[in-house]
Design goal:
With 107 residues, the protein is an alpha/beta fold. The chain has helices spanning 6-18, 66-72; strands at 3-4, 25-34, 37-45, 53-56, 61-64, 76-82, 86-92. Helices cover 19% and strands 40% of the residues. It has a four-stranded mixed sheet with strand order 3-2-5-4. A hairpin with a 3-residue loop joins strand 6 (76-82) and strand 7.
Length: 107
């Protein structure tokens, strides 16, 4: 099961409001695999599509398919505001123990 922190949920709620997306949620999808593990993408989505799992994040739902659900297990969606990484959401995956040296940063 995925977890979303209070700060991340607040950030998403504010984004939905700012973009006039009342009643929408967030679709999380696998965007590929890298040396540091699965890479996720997110987008606004109005309602569940066929095959979606719906996770109640409080003020909005999260949608993802079964393949993404496997990779999201035990992950935490967090809000970051960091001068090096910017402001937004990150998905912390405790299942990834490290990464190979592929030229990217791992944190």
């Amino acid at each position: 099961m995925v977890t979303i922190t209070d700060d991340a949920a607040k950030f998403v709620s504010e984004l939905l409001e700012k973009n006039k997306k009342d009643g929408f949620g967030v679709k999380i999808y696998l965007a590929g695999m890298a040396c540091s593990g699965p890479q996720f993408g997110m987008s606004f989505q109005e309602k569940a599509e066929e095959g979606d799992i719906v996770f109640d994040a409080g003020k909005f739902p999260l949608f993802y398919d079964t393949e993404t659900a496997k990779e999201l297990d035990e992950c935490v969606i967090e809000f970051i505001d960091d001068p090096n990484f910017g402001t937004g959401l990150t998905i912390h995956n405790p299942n990834v123990k490290g990464c190979a040296s592929c030229g990217g940063s791992c944190h």
